Each structure stands twice: as structure tokens, then as C-alpha cells.
From TrEMBL:
Residues 40-50 have a biased composition (Basic residues). GO terms for cellular component: extracellular region. One of its GO terms (molecular function) is hydrolase activity. The keyword Lipid metabolism does not apply. Keywords: Hydrolase, Signal. Pfam families: Esterase_PHB. Signal peptide: none annotated. Residues 30-63 are annotated as: Disordered. This is Esterase. The keyword Signal applies. It comes from Novosphingobium resinovorum.
Amino acid sequence: MADLFKTLSKAARLVRKGRPMSALIAMQDGLKPTAAPRTRLPKAPRRKQAKPAAARQPRPAPGTFGAHEFDCRHGAIHFRLYTPRGPKRRNRPLVVMLHGCSQTASDFATGTGMNELADELGCLVLYPQQSQRANLARCWNWHRPRNQARGEGEPALIAALTRHVLAIAAGNSERVFIAGISAGGSAAAIVGAAYPDLFIAVGVHSGVARGTIRTLPSALAAMRGDRRAGFTGRATRPLPTIVFHGDEDRVVHPSNAAGFLNTLERSQPGPLISRTYYGKSDKGRDFTRKVYRSSSGNTLLEDWTIHGSGHEWSGGSASASYTDPLGPNASREMMRFFLSQRRAN
């Protein structure tokens, strides 16, 4: 109101001075509505780009054996991950361990003693666990066609899980290995062949080599030692592989161990230099170890026959299933073989 009186008084003075136009302009300016003070709108919060699930998870603490679940477009799976004791380091090698039928991840970890070796050697150990929904006996379904190739089925799920664990545990993507027993050993050979860009070596205990197996009956025939289940013709060069088999195995016939050499030979690796070693474990088991190297000296295959042993993890703990405590330590020998490997350029 005070502003209005000031405007009228100013206009009257201008009129008395003979300046009507100036008086009109003063009236117009004074009677303009007062602009509301500008209100600064709060800025919309900047949207943070969602981080991958692995990036949001804290790194597992040293010495932990955690139980987890992983879900991706290929399916869901439970797993256990062992992180070795000691300083929280990056770029540790990773070993993926596939259990046999009727086993669990925890049982397999106990039987193989891999966690104790991981403490000694500084490795991460991943134990995927097959679901009973996928197989009532917890067998890996290695005999089904969709589980025998890259990009689908169990191989794709295991590969995706492996990459996930490498991310959350800051593992070394250039030093990743896969091993298993029985159905897990057969699956390990398939997964390694399907993902040679991810894995650099394979360990198979009491398993079947990759072949023309597409059904459960053909898988059972191969396990009985039917050689017609094997591949013929040229094969893709397999990853460096270490094989263990008991010569008294009543579940997977010992002749299946020869399938891994057959696959290597069909890949036409050039001249193979072989050497045979005979030995006895600390607890009395005799064994034969055959080593096949390329002409350049690279070890391509180790084939161990454990004499007097059955369908059991050689040198494993008696407190778990499917182990032979009397045999040479397959876990330690696999780790020796794995850690000597480097990705081929």
C-alpha cells in the first residue's frame, strides 16, 4: 500500500511539472504486479548407474567357506566358495570343483581336502552344487545334448557362475581350472572344452571322455566300457588334462581313461613324447603315471591309474563319501598340474 501512495505522489509531481507522459510511465511501472521471488527448484537427484550384482557384494573374507546362490538367464544354482586364509589378496587362481552323484558341495570339499590345499597354495575354490530339481541323485546331466555345448544348459550356467565368482573374489581370470569326479568329471571335460577362453586346464577323476553320447542309455553303455560311445574322426585340441582312474572301478569302467588320450591323438597335436612312471603312495597303493608331452615340451595329458582302487577320489579323506585314503593324493597332483599351466598365446 505504501508503494502505491509513493507512485501516485510521483505521478502528480510530474503532471504539475508539465510532464504527463513521464507521469503515465511512472504510473504503469508502479502498478505492475510485483514479481514473485524466484524459487530455485531443488535439483533432481542424479541417478546412479546400477552396478552389477558382483560389484555390490563385498569380497569374501579370508578363511571363509560361504554358502551362496547364483541366478542368471541360464538358471539358478547353489554354490560354496572357499577363500584361503592369509592376507586379502587379488588375482588368486580359481579351481572349480564338480562333485559326483549323491554328493554335496560340502561333502566333496571334505573328501578332496581342496580347502586345506587352497590355504597352502593361495587359491580360491568354487564348488557348484547340482540341484535335486535338476537331477534327483544330484548328478550333473552331462549325457544330455543341451548340456554338451557352449551357450546353453549346465555348461553355460557353470561358466557364468565362474565369471561371477572371479568378480566378487577378485580372482585371476588367466588362471582358472576345472575338475570333478564321476558325473562331475565328465561334466568338467565338457565345460572345459566348451569354454577354452575361460578355463586353461581340466582334471577328471573316474569320468568319461567327451564322445557321441546323447542319451542316458548311451551314457550307461560308456560307463560299462562300451567303446562305441566314443568320438571318431578329427577332434578339437583339448585343454591340458590330468586324469585319475582306479583299475577296480565298478561304476565307470577303467577303459574310459583311454578316451582322453584318444581325443588328444585325434586332435592331431603332432608327435607325442610319452613317458611312464611307476610308484607307490605313502599308504601302499601302487600307481602308474603316464605323461604325454608335445615336441616343444608342453605337458598335454597326464594319465594316472591307481591299482586296487575303485570309484573313489584317490588320497581323499575317510570322513567323506567316495574316497580312497590309501591312494596317492589326487588333489595335490591336480594342483601341481594346474599351477604349472599357462594360457596358450
